[in-house]
Amino acid sequence: MGNLFEVLSKMVEEGKEEATQTGTVEAMGGKLKGVYGFSVRLGLGGEPVVERFGNIRETPSGVQVVETREPLVDVLDEEGRILVIAEMPGTEEKDIQVKAEGDILEITASSEERRYHKEVLLPSAVEPTKVVTSYRNGVLEVRLTKTQRAGA
Q1: pTM metric for this prediction
Q2: Quick one: 118 exposed, middle or buried, by C-beta within 10 A (0-12, 13-18, 19+)?
Q3: Domain 71-152 is in which class?
Q4: Residue ranges per domain, the chain?
Q5: Integer CA distances (angstroms), 47 to 44, 93, 120, 136, in order
Q6: Which 8-state DSSP code applies to residue 149?
Q7: Is 72 exposed, middle or buried (0-12, 13-18, 19+ CB in 10 A)?
Q8: For the segment 59-98, what is each residue's pLDDT rounded down to a tens digit?
Q9: Cα–Cα distances in angstroms (integers) from residue 60 to residues 5, 24, 54, 64, 106, in the given order
Q10: Which residue in 57, 48, 52, 92 sits closest to 72, CA to CA?
């Protein structure tokens, strides 16, 4: 999957705040295709945040290619709101389900071409009835309203 240290070093050298690396693997004579990748960005205090995506998973029995992919996801914490952006090419808006509960957002999509699933840990709890989604050109945007705390 590439060397994470090399990617971080290159980011520092070039003064970048974000980098992505991807690749594909074919097995069973091309019948099975694995997609993998990771995105690295600098978070608060310069700490690197690594987000992996694709359909290759490491299991106790070794590396496996699975049908369901993890989309690349960005979470933006805004005042009173949270914006989640997920890259899910190969699906249509009607194929996507979004469910928010507490501080977890679950994104699922299933089409003839692709399957995606991701549970996203949000920076705070959200109102499950105030979820607004939009989907365009393979990019899902989910706008969530933060839960108001008592006394706030």
Answers
A1: 0.68
A2: buried
A3: mainly beta
A4: 1-66, 71-152
A5: 6, 34, 19, 31
A6: P
A7: buried
A8: 787 766 667 888 888 899 988 899 999 999 889 999 999 9
A9: 25, 22, 18, 10, 25
A10: 52
